[in-house]
Structure formats: structure tokens, C-alpha cells
Specification:
Oligomer: heterodimer
Number of strands of chain B: 8
Distance between the termini of chain B: 20 Å
Strand order of the largest sheet of chain A: 3-4-14-9-10-13
Order of helices and strands of chain B: HEHEHHEHHEHEHEHEHEHH
Radius of gyration of chain B: 16 Å
CATH class of the largest domain in chain A: Alpha Beta
Distance between the termini of chain A: 49 Å
Number of helices of chain B: 12
CATH superfamily of chain B: Aldolase class I
CATH topology of chain B: TIM Barrel
Strand order of the largest sheet of chain B: 7-6-5-4-3-2-1-8
Shape of chain A: globular
CATH topology of the largest domain in chain A: Rossmann fold
CATH architecture of chain B: Alpha-Beta Barrel
Helix content of chain A: 40-55%
Structural class of chain A: alpha/beta
Strand content of chain B: 5-15%
Largest interface: A-B, 39 and 44 residues
CATH architecture of the largest domain in chain A: 3-Layer(aba) Sandwich
Largest sheet of chain B: 8 strands, parallel
Radius of gyration of chain A: 19 Å
Number of helices of chain A: 16
Shape of chain B: globular
Number of domains of chain B: 1
Strand content of chain A: 15-25%
Amino acid sequence: MSAGRFGIHGGQYIPETLMNAVRELEEAYDHYKNDPEFNRELNTLLNEYAGRPSRLYFAEKMTRDLGGAKIYLKREDLNHTGAHKINNVLGQALLAKKMGKTRLIAETGAGQHGVATATAAALMDMECVVFMGEEDTRRQALNVYRMKLLGAEVIPVTTGTATLKDAVSQAMREWTSRIADTHYCLGSVMGPHPFPTIVRDFQAVISKEIKQQILEKEGRLPDAVIACVGGGSNAIGSFYHFINDPSVQLIGCEAAGRGIDTPETAATIATGKLGIFHGMKSYFCQDDDGQIAPVYSISAGLDYPGIGPEHAWLHDIGRAQYVPITDEQAVEAFEYLARTEGIIPAIESAHAIAHAMQIAPKMARDQIIVITISGRGDKDCAAIARYRGEDLHE
Amino acid sequence: MSRIRNAFANGKAFIPFITCGDPDIATTEAVIRAAVANGADLIELGIPFSDPTAEGPVIMNANLRALTNGIRTDDVFELVARLRRDIEISLVFMTYANVVFSYGSEKFFTRCQQTGIDGLILPDVPFEEKGEFLEIGHRHGVELISMVAPTSADRISMIAREAEGFIYVVSSLGVTGTRTRITTDLASIVRVIRENTAVPCAVGFGISTPEQARKMADNSDGAIVGSAIIKLLERYGKDSPKYVGAYVKSMKDAVR
């Protein structure tokens, strides 16, 4: 079996045209990940530019209100550009620069990864092209404007469902046509090897910090770490340094959309089956003929028919648990956190909050839950207002 | 001699690609018959996939039209079985890994063998991933066609040494679709292939005119054309067979 496997998942299912490009990327990454100078530069960017470490905030009111486990929020929403995406992008952009690339291309769903990539490109004097499903350019119009403001070109993708999966396909097509000067800055722990590993390593800073911070604050590990999962980058980043701590429950929250018993869902573990797509073997929402399903979620960032191969493996071995959260549950959690803690989370992150709201009351008061708030919710306010029947447009 | 090898025994080969079920399966069948009658040496049959990441807009849309019309993988196998009652030339499938994998690879290759499919092209299965399909293919007499790209460089000899059926040489960077110019140094790529294998090689991606086809075939053992044919289907729909027939004749005359 080929390189980059997580159990049976992962691999490199891509056109021959891209094989030398991913090999070159793997070689460069293997070199630079151990290079002190590279790591010094990256840490400076993460700390001085992105604002790391992000806070681990004790949500006291929420804890009291739910009446069970102590709840901590890992505040990735406070990073520069407003989400965890910047962690990975700064790493990949720096790597691309070292490789002599002058142009970044990226896919984006909610727009957070696109904004982060456009930001890194502006900072590092690189050209930037972002592919975004046309449907998502409407749902996330503000982020489209931000990307353009940062100097990126945004290309609306009209094929298929015109959402995240189509943006990934189009970015892959673009990469096959222009490789020499271009790095594909993939935004999640998916795609062909080495992307799931590279993105995970760059996002693992989240769990590294959580571990350090919770030990400082509580003197012990949490009982559960909860994060939302689309492709799964903030979740794997939140889980990674706890994988070998069996007392820590790892819970990924998938987007169930209008419910896992309806076709309007994006919950891959709950409704998908094993397949091969977008460069990897993993679980995908698909029909009996292997046609990829037109998935749905209120959250553009979780509206993806697959899940990263390392999550598929963590699911197979029972190390992590994946639970579906509906639009309605997520919207309620979005409103709840705003009211209770004065924090407006991304609608993606609200899926993780919704699950914590279900389990915290059933847990003991000396137990600890950490929820990763992967991004801030400013971008979602108009869409949630519309969901609640208000005629609000940006 | 295998049917695939036969395709390269009649001068340089002309290989048309057709997406099955676009606009409907009856038209596909008539188009294939017209291509065979006008000198096609081997036919690539596309099994539609919802997200064909190696295709440009023309073939992507053909895939979506076929799926919108309700084409299933089993409909394609039934089409092949009908064609095989009287068509002798080599037929190979072009589709994506998930179509085969989700059907059940063992069952898929068994159906290929039963209906008379000689080879399989999976553009999202490179050399490193072919093992899981190759072994099953061998047990069912179905050859897995390897692709070589302009970026393959040091990989060409490795791919060529293990190649079977024929080698699909990708003419240009990017996805499928017609191009006005093809600038890749194909002669050098083909030279490395020939140093490593006796398996024939045909060039595809971007070819639409007889002049391009002749030039590509001069450098190799044949030319593959997809998007230019799909455009005829897009334009003429159910009336396509006569236009595709005439086109295939002009292309075969150019390469032979």
C-alpha cells in the first residue's frame, strides 16, 4: 500500500500529472519540519502575527447554567483572520515560499480558509487565487469581499452543487494545469498524502496548547475534547496531542443538516460509506453507484461529503466518536453562546457547542470539557438572521 | 494477440472516447457503432462519475448530463453486452476509482470479463495505488492502462516497465479539453517509454483536428480524442452518429 495511510484510509488517488508535485511537497516538508530556522520563522509568525497562543477560557456562566462538567473554550476565534485556518496556512505558505513557489491556490467553503490564504499571500508577497462554490459566495459574501481586499482573485465555481466539494475539485484541476510556480494550499486534513499529515501537524498546535493550558489551570487532563468536523482540521488539531491519553474522550461533531434521516445532510460518519475521492480513501456520502452525494448543511464550512482519513481511522479503531448535529441544534447553540458568554461563534463551531450542551449536564461537576471554538461568527450573522426569518442582507 | 494489441496492428490507432448515456444510452450505442464502422481501432467508454476531477468542462458536463438522465453503472455493462454481440474491436472503460470501488472491485472486474471489456483507465489511480485494482484485473483478464504525464520525468521508466495494454500519454498539463497548441516534448517521453517496454502508447488530451492527430500519432502509436467528439454530441444530440462517424473517418485517415 502507498504512503500516507491511516489504517486503510488515506493514500494518493490523484492524476499522474500531480504525482511529482506531491512528492516534491513531501520531500520539502520532511526537510523543513525539522529545520530550526523554518520552525523559528513559523513560530514568530504564529505568535506575533496570528496572535498565538490562543486563550483557553473558562466559560463559567455556561458551566453554571448547564449544571454539570466544567467547560473551557479554546478560543481559535481570537486568531488573526478569525479562525484556526491561519495556523495551517502560515505553515504551508512559508513552506511554499521555501520551495520557490510564487503563487498560492486554495479552495474555501465558509471563506475562512480563503481569507487566511489571501492573508498569508499578502504578507508573503505571493499571488493568490481562491476557488469558492458559487452558492457559498452568496452565503458568505463578506468573506468574498475580504479576500478581494487582501488582493486575491476569487473564482466562483458553478459545477455540481457549487459548494466546497466542487471548489476542491476545481482547485485540483487548476493545480494540474499550473504546477511549476503554484502551491495548492489545501485547507483541511484531506486530499492526497502528504496533505492530511502536513495540515494536521500545523493544526496540532491547538491540542499542544490545550494540554499545557489545562494542566496549568486544572492540574489534570480534560475528560472530553469536542470539535466540529467537516474535513476535520480543527478537530484533528484539537485531538492530536490527546490521542495517546485514553482518559480523554475525543468527540467530533458532524453537520447533520436537516437530519441524518433526510438527504439534506453532510454527516459523513453517520451516513457515508467507504470510498475513494479527492485523492484519498475514506468515508464519503455517496449513492449505490459511488456518485458523490450533493450534501447540505447550514454551515458552508462543514458542507463537505467526506472526512479526513485520520478521522476515518480514529472512528474505525473507536478512539474518537463522531456525532451528528442538526442545523437547528447548531443555530440554538450559536444563539446560546452569544447570550450566555458574550461570544458569537462560527456556525461551524456551534455544532461542537451544541453537543457539549447535551452532555455537560449529565457529567459530574469535577469533570472537564474543552470545546474548540474554531472561528468567530460575524460571517454567519446575516445567514442565521435569515434562518430565523429576519429579512437581513449584507 | 490481445484485442488491445490488435488495435495497434492496423497502422497508427485512432481511439475515440465516448461518455456513456450522453444524451441517452441508445444514442451512445449508435455513436459507437458509427465509430466502429468508420475505422475506430479501440473505443474508450466513459462510465459517468459525479465529480470527474481530471476532466475539463466539456466531458464534465457530459458526465452530469448522463447522470441527470439516470444512467447507472449497470446500464453501461448492459450496453457493452449488447455491443459485444457483433463488435470485435477492443473496448476499454474510462472512469474514476470510486465507481469501481463502490460497485465492489471484484464484482466490477467480473462484469468486465463477462461482457467483454479489455481494459480499464482510472485517471485518479497512479502507479503507487494501482496494486489494489491490478491483481483483481489480472484474475479477470482486464488490463489496467497506465498514464504518463508531461510532469512524469523520472517516473516514466518505472511506469513503462510495469505497463500493460497500452500507455496513455497525457499530452499537456491540465484537464481534458481541446487545445489549439500542444507544446510538450512528446518525442522525448515516448523515447523513454520505448526504451522500457514494447507496450504501445497513444497520446490524448487536447487533440481535436486531423493535423494534431497526425502529429501526435507520428510521435507515438496512436491518438485519443474525447472532448471534440463530446462537442459533436452536445451539438447534434440524437443525430450525432453520422457526424461522429464522419469525424472518426477523417481522424483515422489522418493518423493511419
